[in-house]
Design goal:
mainly alpha; two-stranded antiparallel ribbon; 4 strands; 7 helices; 133 residues
């Protein structure tokens, strides 16, 4: 066997992640701390020296943690229907987010932090409200 071995992340937080993401007693509360971690990772400079940086999809990163037992370029390609180069970026994003998600899932204080879904302001809505100033 020659060449580089694939870099595989064993997703041992999948069950806890799904319980936290879907297992809410109240339908209008949200684990915003998960969104904070994933959004921060997604907005990193993934494309190098480009004038316009388009962040990775937070939804796609979350889908990887929900659906994949092992996160690698190949499994991300199959799940999200991406080409290898883009799937590599998503696999790297998952590897970066993993230790932060794992540490947060181990903390009951963080897991019990919930926000009303109405308190979440999208970027576009925030600009309309003038939050960017």
């Amino acid at each position: 066997m020659r060449g580089r071995k694939p870099n595989v992340l064993v997703n041992d937080i999948r069950q806890e992640f799904c319980e936290e993401w879907f297992g809410r007693d109240e339908p209008n509360v949200w684990p915003l701390w998960i969104d904070d971690i994933v959004s921060g990772i997604a907005r990193l400079d993934w494309y190098g020296e480009r004038e316009q940086q388009i962040p990775l999809s937070t939804y796609s990163i979350i889908q990887c943690f929900i659906h994949l037992d092992e996160i690698s370029t190949q499994t991300v390609m199959e799940l999200l229907g991406l080409k290898e180069r883009m799937a590599r970026k998503y696999a790297s994003a998952c590897r970066l987010a993993y230790p932060f998600l794992k540490r947060s899932l181990a903390s009951e204080q963080i897991k019990n932090t919930r926000y009303p879904q109405t308190s979440i302001v999208s970027y576009e809505h925030g600009i309309k409200l003038g939050y960017d100033k």
